[in-house]
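For the sake of clarity, the format in which proteins appear in this thesis is described at this point. The record quoted next illustrates the convention:

___
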Amino acid sequence: MELKTITPNQLYTPASTTAGERLHQTKKTKNSAINLPGLAVLLGTFILLVGAAFLVYELQPEFDQLHQERMNSTWGFILIVVATTLLIIKGSFFLYNLYLYIKYKPVKSVADEQLPTVTVIVPAYNEGKLVWDTLMSLAASKYPVSKLEILAIDDGSKDDTWYWMQQAKEKLGDRLSIFQQPENKGKRHALYRGFNLGTGEVFVTVDSDSVVKTDTLRNLVSPLVTNQNCGAVAGNVRVLNNKRSIIPKMLNVSFVLSFEFIRSAESSLGSVLCTPGALAAYRRSAVFECLPEWINQTFMGQPSDIGEDRAMTNMIMKQGYHILFQRNAYVLTNVPEKYKGLYKMFIRWGRSNVRENLMMAKFVFKEFREESKIGTRLLFLNQFFSIIMAYPFILLMFFFIATYPLLFLSSTLVGILVMSSFPVFFYAKRYSLAESFYAYSYSILYTFGLFWITPYAIATASKRGWLTRDLVVKKVS
């Protein structure tokens, strides 16, 4: 198990002089990780959690009485049994993930002569100068120039994105090819054009608001060389603008758990469920095997214009390929800094999750792979179970708020204190103790401010639209 500490200075490696200037604010030491607003949020978080723990202690007689009332009623007893069963299932699944995480090891980069030819596709829409940073970071990669093709595709941007692509082209020359869609057709169509234009044995997709480390590309594609059963590889996504506001700070800690713990566990089964749009690699033959289905994908009669990364992952997994994760392939990406942008991003992800779980259900219990499929099916069931339980959980939540508001609030906060301690420990072990406490703040935000996302995403799963593409987001400057 690799638990090598990686400092922020190692993470935020500038790809070029310009990128270095633009990312200057992100190069902080651990000791300066918490600014005054961040400190205020963490203090508020601890006051809430400690206060809740004290309240639970003081209200223990009321909790005992409620428990006794449940035990003496049929429905109450059923609820206790169901809740206990769910807790045991979730706990068992966590221990299973922990076992898989311990087994996981990233693949080391292969030698230059073994590296495949790669086409990197960068779709961009209204990214402005940030697309320059993305392209410069890719060009600075420690990858044989003769084996690296970079394609940037402007998806009908309304700002100066095309200008910055032209500037990058002027600087990089033949190393970069740029294309402009005649109109905004969506990220999937921009990628589709890139897939058809690219000549590499491996396709790499990178979001246009992201910056890669110099060794990212070679680390990302190496599993495709060492494992012929590997069809796709997910990169390790961290937050680029996590020094600018509170929400990115929280998401940065959340991303570490989501990628470095959960995807590491999934990778041990060869079944990473989503290769992120921010950074992913695909075997050329696997892409072209499913490309017509992917570009023509529909949901409830409407063209699918979201979830292109999860859809591609599903379609490659359905072919029998392994989907792996490379913890040593870092990409730094921008995330929303305001609540509105955050919930819109989560709605899009939620809708995609609903759609692609339904798609996965069509093949996951069939003989889609020669090796054992039990682990993959357990991963699917865990996700699917979270979806189908969304409405019962939210109804129960409203019921307890209406009948036992103080008991509900205090016990929920104590539950956050207990359950979020693992993400805190995990992040502190791998990166920074000071920043790790944002896991508590994020859990409070998600529990009380984003609990409605999954039920809403289920109810509106057929709706189209990227939601955040036209959102004005402050870029790193």
Summary: The chain has one domain: 1-471. Residues 1-471 form a domain with the Spore Coat Polysaccharide Biosynthesis Protein SpsA; Chain A fold (CATH 3.90.550.10). Residues 1-33, 471-477 have pLDDT under 50 and may be disordered.
